[in-house]
TrEMBL record:
A biological process from GO: polysaccharide catabolic process
Membrane-crossing residue ranges in chain numbering: none
Keyword annotations from UniProtKB, A to Z: Carbohydrate metabolism, Chitin degradation, Glycosidase, Hydrolase, Polysaccharide degradation, Signal
The name this protein goes by in its record: chitinase
Enzyme class: hydrolase
GO molecular function, one term: endochitinase activity
Length: 428
């Protein structure tokens, strides 16, 4: 008889979980992890941590809590991951005019190099049933991608729609599984056509029975060499900024002039066509996952929580990749717990204290000023001369020009300071 309540509890917990953990793009604690490349396997021979099927990373495991106490119930073991971009469609126009996915360890459709991974359909659908989104990621570091025109990009959008999303094709790499959107990890091949591509995907998805998400994974230097102009033109749902392999990476978080999450937040709120776009901290999930940018979990947690409390566009953390995170002591679960402890929803600006920036005023190094709703700290030569005068050849990070002094670029000389976010200003 004891089994009956247990079973009832089990069922109700499942239903409950299904509601609570449905993907919500507006949350502040989402974790996105790339799957598909077995990045851990590239540098380690320990097959125990090699990539597992995608469904393995989606299991909200229900455990039998206590036999001894006879108060049996089931509870979720963990639910660390919210979004799984599948990496990668790395060639847009391969054999037979079809795209190519890598790695290709299965049969390909006749006349193409497009892998037939239809065996993955059930696994992907399982992840979706657990409230996760699974997207197809285009590009990657070694990608042979790019368009020559908007028309070519639009046609390719139809191909992607038919192969992976809500369209139809005889050559769907994941069979019946209907993925939840597209991630653009474009690291070469220029910007041509991507805005048209996104617009076409949005158009095909309009009126669909479920939401489709568009995400991008630019490098942290702002603006991104390939996606910079694209994300200015068309709305994205989330930007997984790669804070690694660059000076602006997580390893330099404490260097004011390097860490630029604030610049991305400013872009999100002032430039992005989608004012609700979410910015993620993209991080390597272990020391072997990237050339630079890996930081221990305690550091990433501190940084992510600080950004979450400082910037309203913050959406969570992106990790590269599932295999690395699992091999590194569940780095994914640890960051999820740090984020969730800070809350999925709700944002309040910290109180402000820095004085408002005054055009033409002399500032010395280390001084802070508030400007455009942000706290900045002066960088540059010490002591700085008559500050805030434009220096030839210095890129204006945010395109902010003070109207009071025509040739006066505030952001040439002030950088966001991670130490000063406590004094964050929105005093309107
Ligand atoms: C794709 O693979 C599945 C499973 O191996 C097979 O049943 C199907 O016929 C293949 N599709 C094509 C078009 O080759
Ligand atoms: C590749 O094919 C094997 C055997 O047909 C199958 O077990 C495996 O799941 C497939 N892998 C993918 C990624 O579809
Ligand atoms: C981690 O954080 C500690 C404490 O702030 C700092 O001293 C250390 O340099 C950080 N490590 C990395 C790799 O950023």
């Amino acid at each position: 008889m004891a089994l009956l309540p247990t079973f009832t509890t089990f069922v109700s917990v499942c239903v409950y979980l299904g509601k609570v953990f449905a993907y919500d793009n507006s949350y502040y604690d989402n974790v996105a992890i790339y799957w598909g490349q077995n990045s851990y396997g590239a540098t380690s021979s320990n097959t125990a941590y090699y990539q597992r099927p995608i469904s393995f990373y989606c299991q909200v495991v229900l455990v039998f809590a206590s036999v001894a106490r006879r108060d049996s119930f089931w509870e979720p073991k963990d639910d660390a991951i919210d979004a799984l971009p599948v990496a990668f469609v790395d060639t847009f126009f391969g054999t037979g005019g079809m795209p190519t996915c890598n790695p290709t360890d299965n049969a390909t459709f006749s006349g193409t190099d497009l892998a037939n991974c239809s065996a993955l359909a059930a696994d992907i659908e399982y992840c979706q049933s657990q409230g996760k989104i699974v997207t197809i990621s285009l590009g990657g570091a070694g990608g042979g991608v790019g368009f020559t025109s908007d028309a070519e990009a639009q046609t390719f959008a139809q191909t992607i729609w038919n192969l992976f999303l809500g369209g139809k094709s005889n050559t769907r790499p994941f069979g019946s599984a209907v993925l939840d959107g597209v991630d653009l990890d474009i690291e070469g091949g220029g910007s041509t056509g991507y805005a048209a591509f996104v617009t076409e995907i949005r158009s095909l998805a309009s009126g669909a029975s479920k939401p489709y998400y568009i995400t991008g994974a630019p490098q942290c230097p702002f603006p991104d060499a390939n996606l910079g102009g694209v994300i200015d033109q068309v709305g994205f749902d989330a930007i997984y900024v790669q804070f690694y392999n660059n000076a602006c990476g997580l390893q330099n978080y404490r260097i004011v002039s390097d860490w630029d999450f604030g610049v991305w937040d400013m872009w999100a709120r002032q430039t992005s066509p989608n004012a609700n776009v979410k910015i993620y901290i993209g991080a390597p999930a272990s020391s072997t996952a990237a050339g630079s940018g890996y930081v221990p979990i305690s550091n990433l947690s501190t940084i992510a929580v600080q950004m979450r409390r400082s910037f309203p566009s913050f959406g969570g953390v992106m990790l590269w990749d599932t295999s690395q995170a699992y091999a590194n002591n569940r780095y994914d679960l640890a960051i999820k717990q740090a984020l969730s402890a800070t809350g999925s929803t709700g944002f309040t600006y910290p109180p402000c204290s820095a004085a408002a920036y005054v055009s033409g005023q002399v500032y010395t190094a280390g001084e802070t000023a508030s400007y455009e709703g942000y706290i900045w700290e002066l960088t540059g030569p010490i002591p700085y001369p008559v500050v805030v005068a434009r220096v030839a050849g210095v890129r204006c990070l945010c395109g902010v020009v003070d109207t009071a002094v025509a040739d006066d670029h505030f952001s040439d000389h002030f950088k966001f300071s991670p130490d000063r976010f406590n004094y964050f200003l929105i005093c309107k």
